[in-house]
Amino acid sequence: MIFKELFKTTNWDEIKSSIYAKTAADVERALASSKRTLEDFKSLISPAAEPYLEQMAQESNALTQKRFGKTIQLYTPMYLSNECNNICTYCGFSFDNKIRRKTLTDEEILQEVAYLKERGFNHILLVTGEANHTVHVPYFKRVMDLIRNEFANISIEVQPLDEDEYGVLHEAGVYSVLVYQETYHQEVYKAYHPKGKKSNFEYRLDTPDRCGRAGIHKIGLGILLGLEDWRTDSFFCALHLDYMQKKYWQTKYSISFPRMRPAEGIIEPNVIVGDRELVQLICAYRLFNEDVELSISTRESEHFRNHVIPLGVTTMSAGSKTNPGGYVVEPESLEQFEISDERSVKEIAQLIRDNGYEAVWKDWDRSFSTTRFNPPSKEDMDPLSLLEERQREVAIPIISTKINDTNV
Amino acid sequence: MLKIADKELKSRLFLGTGKFGSSKQMEEAVLASGSELVTVALKRVDLETETDDLLAHLKHAHINLLPNTSGARNAKEAVFAAQLAREAMETNWLKLEIHPDPKYLLPDPIETLKATEELAKLGFVILPYIHADPVLCKRLEDVGTAAVMPLGAPIGTNKGLKTLDFLEIIIEQSRVPVIVDAGIGSPSHAAHAMELGADAVLVNTAIAVATNPKEMALAFKMAVESGRMAYEAGLGAISRSANASSPLTGFLNM
């Protein structure tokens, strides 16, 4: 069974009303349980759990430290392109938004890379819109060849791709793929995404399955908070996570909590998710799942980020720009959304230390990405691609020159 | 004194270096523990800049580094990572960790055996992280492991010696040092493992996440020493029942 089939057996309205029907007794049962179920997750995200927030936060803190220690991983996004053929009514890159479009050239990418490396980043997230004629797999592969040896860990947040395309990018060194469903409410999804390839709800819903089959190391799930009832949407996301974890058991998972931010030409959020509610959601995820990575971006305010560190998150971005070339090349190009926490990465690293946590810059090594998940046998490859592969092996040293026998 | 391969170690407490709130805190805890062997995750170390913060805090003459392959999902990846670690950290000692399951981080016995065999041929001193499986321990001995590191409970759970019965069998049968790894959540767990006759224990989470890691490291040091001392002094046998005051077989003495 793939997730789409499981999804078809569910009913949005029934799930929504079951969440809102949870009582204090349900919440207490969930809190007392040592192995929490999806029903417990419903209780923890329900309005009935609000009075238990401090207790949830304390446990979330303890569980997170037990699993991840007193550490926060730092990463930063690098926007490669704002070209996009989709109309998404909440996004600054939406096709119908009359802005100047830009896709970074190799030289521009290297300038941005140099800036980010100088600031200490070793984990990076590549972001684009969806423009399948220009920003496609060959482009991504070229970018990976260009920057693979510059970072320990490279993730992508780009348009959903086919399984074999993920395979190509995995082989090219992509560590993780982030693809958010935005909302699991099928009709509402159609309204927010009226045009473009993204309007295909099911293709997007299938994406984590395709990533899983392609052997991607880590898959990031999430919803856009502000589109629909966040409790019901989060339940579906947790259901998706639970399904993925059982099926693709060798894969790691992360959850992000993007709240809608102002951007040029976009609509107002349909639902406002307050700070108290976002904390409840973060803690509920941790109590439900002790090993999922939880990520908080610079969409959130200084005040919120100052206090969120001990509540269960494991990963933070810092010093982010959400426009292509935003760091050096073209700081004034149009951004996807306004970031809220504008502090430098140095300040964020200090903030993490002030909270008694270690800021972790590197938690992966390229050496683990060089062996393929499902290597095609050499016999199956045509001579030309075999030659290309040899050239690639020769041209790209796997690690610094200090080490000689990497090919043993 | 504990001897692994050709190295003699005074301390029977090994430490993990992840999860600490800062490298300085980690260093203080390592020093307080008296440990001479600490694990370092290859994936956490920045081998390229040569200014790695973690390694900088471990530069003490008595501290030996034990690189681990955490992140590897199969033997092939682990063997590759091991070779990088050997070059970069200038040691042929290796804590072999292959846990393809990122949820409970449970070790893959098949890939671990495969990698041990291959790495032993390449001259590594291998300390594999394994489930408390006595047969696997014997198989690892056969292919040249330097020690075995069976788990007490899943990594980071602090649950103690959940695999007690199997640890006892492993300790009884082993021809290589047995280091109880993972799950040790308090000094009493460590003392218990040492009383059973384990050669050493490895602790990370319980120290790193303590409110005062340095004090906790010292507490573990004392527990490990006292457990070992008790083992060497010869613990009294545990009686299954109290000595009956009216023995059933007393009449035989009449």
Describe how the helices and strands are arranged.
The complex is a heterodimer of chains A (408) and B (254).
Chain A: H1 3-8, H2 12-20, H3 24-32, H4 38-45, H5 53-68, E1 71-79, H6 106-118, E2 123-127, H7 137-147, E3 153-157, H8 163-171, E4 176-178, H9 186-192, H10 201-205, H11 207-213, E5 218-222, H12 230-247, E6 252-256, H13 275-288, E7 293-296, H14 302-308, E8 315-317, H15 345-354, E9 358-360, H16 383-395
Parallel strand pairs in A: 1-2, 1-8, 1-9, 2-3, 3-4, 4-5, 5-6, 6-7, 7-8
Helix pairs in contact in A: 3-4, 4-12, 4-13, 5-13
Chain B: E1 2-4, E2 7-9, E3 13-16, H1 23-33, E4 37-41, H2 53-56, E5 64-68, H3 75-89, E6 93-96, H4 109-121, E7 125-130, H5 134-142, E8 149-150, H6 164-173, E9 179-181, H7 187-196, E10 200-203, H8 205-208, H9 213-233
Parallel strand pairs in B: 3-4, 3-10, 4-5, 6-7, 7-8, 9-10
Antiparallel strand pairs in B: 1-2
Binding site for 1-deoxy-D-xylulose 5-phosphate (chain B): 156, 182-183, 204-205
Function (chain B): Catalyzes the rearrangement of 1-deoxy-D-xylulose 5-phosphate (DXP) to produce the thiazole phosphate moiety of thiamine. Sulfur is provided by the thiocarboxylate moiety of the carrier protein ThiS. In vitro, sulfur can be provided by H(2)S.
Protein name (chain B): Thiazole synthase
